[in-house]
Amino acid sequence: MEIGETNRGGHLVWGGCDCVELAARYGTPLYVMDQDVMVARMRRYLESGRAAYAGLNVAYAGKAFVCGSLVQLVNREGLGLDVVSGGELQLALSAGMPAERILFHGNNKSPDELSFGLEAGVGRFVVDNAVEMERLSRLAAVSRSTARVQVRVTPGISPHTHRAVQTGQVDSKFGFPITGGVALAAVQRALALPGLKLMGLHSHIGSQISDLAPFRAAARAAARLAWEAWQKTGFLAPEINLGGGWAADYVPGAAGVASLEMYLAALVSAFKLAWRRHGTPGVSLGLSDRCGGQPGAATRRYAWPSLFIEPGRSIVAEAGITLYTVGATKAVSGHDPYVLVDGGMADNPRPLLYGSKYHAVLANRILEQPAGMFSLAGKACESGDVLVRGLALPAPRPGDVIAVFTTGAYNHAMSSNYNRLPRPAVVFVTGGQARLTVRRETYDDLLRCDVVAGSGFSAENETAAPTPRLHVAAARDPGSG
Ligand SMILES: Cc1ncc(COP(=O)(O)O)c(C=O)c1O
């Protein structure tokens, strides 16, 4: 995990910036993202990934953390972008992401979201279910466009991670199950439907996975299904998307045994082995390879597909910290005293949702020795709003600045206004410079959608009209009557 540096004043330094100064300048709670760490991860994914497999596409999964400035970095670094809603699509387009490098995910995209994606010309729709596939086909036909699709399949793999972030297990709500031939039937249907151009298969088994075995199993399952589809339909998938899911390190000493490179190598080698085993010589889509292991075998050409991966967490999690100000401390007989901070579950729901562990320090007193163990509690009206338990700290005082590490993923993205708390600002730091990338919400922002009798809000505004969106006009689902 990234733990930053310490300056001579005993302050935590993040991206070259003094965290105490950042807290004073921008207020707290504050998300601080080290731009260099994020960019380095993106490059590492591209470089190490392409060293393992030349035809690899890396799409950043925006659900982990997204804002316009991050979209610009993703675009500049040459990654694709995975979006999961009309809102994420709107943000991506407004920040200049080329539509053809966007993959549109989601297990229940609305007709309006599908139309938005079609009109914007997103690169791929990752189709989750039969209703969506038919709906997308109708919408594409009506608008005389073609939707390029990857069919999301469920391999029936349960990786060792929190149940809530498993997505490829047998009872998953995502995708078409491979078992029982459901995924194969979906491939056949996608080939038959007008308005769709089937590009390949997609599978994603979950998040925060540090074990290599389930990734290998998923890669094998995708290769096998592609082979079965080829056998049955003659369609050889030009694209295989193996999703994201590689873990981040949240607490010191908890680093998994495998590196990002080992993960990429495991994924790619399992895939290549399985693809060769079910090899489809004679169709050349790209790379060629030698058929190893067969004495005297001639060079065979394999139809290697483009591989896609969609990392989110492992690109942004460790780049981020959250700064809080201590408001008060409270002794509890027989238990660790509480340190009460000015944020909590509204800006980081993960401890409450998944029992996630975090590490934190007093950012203004890094060099002081711990005085005991403390519980870092938030300010929300929930007893469960405790960010870290059993945290060794120098005795905290009101006004101290706390830094919680590894909050770059699924924090800002999952934040809420619970208790009407305004969402914190986000700053990007690099080389000692900080820039505001998302401003702090104000109380006025919190009132923006509130409709009060006599406010002048007309009945017309109360219809279920689609949310206005960028570039494209509202479209109706032709199948919805
Ligand atoms: C389809 C899909 N792709 C990619 C991701 C990104 O996963 P992670 O942030 O764990 O890399 C997710 C998140 O679970 C996902 O649902």
Which features does this protein show?
8-stranded parallel barrel; globular; 481 residues; binds pyridoxal-5'-phosphate; alpha/beta; Lyase, Ornithine Decarboxylase, Chain A, domain 1; 2 domains; TIM Barrel
Structural write-up:
It contains twelve helices and 21 strands. The chain is an alpha/beta fold. The strands form three sheets. Strands 4, 14, 15, 16, 17, 18, 19, 20 and 21 form a nine-stranded mixed β-sheet that branches. It starts with a strand and ends in a 34-residue tail after the last helix. The chain has two domains: 5-32 and 317-445, Lyase, Ornithine Decarboxylase, Chain A, domain 1 (Beta Barrel), CATH 2.40.37; 35-292 and 300-313, Alanine racemase (TIM Barrel), CATH 3.20.20. Helix 5 links the parallel strand 7 (102-104) and strand 8 (124-127). The protein has helices at residues 19-26, 35-52, 68-77, 86-94, 111-120, 130-142, 182-192, 212-233, 260-277, 313-316, 350-354, 443-447; strands at 5-6, 12-14, 17-18, 30-34, 56-61, 80-83, 102-104, 124-127, 147-154, 176-177, 196-202, 239-241, 306-309, 320-332, 335-341, 360-362, 372-377, 386-393, 401-405, 425-430, 433-438. Residues 282-299 and 473-481 have low confidence and may be disordered. The chain binds pyridoxal-5'-phosphate. Residues 61, 63-64, 82, 105, 167, 204, 207, 243-246, 310-314 line the site of pyridoxal-5'-phosphate.
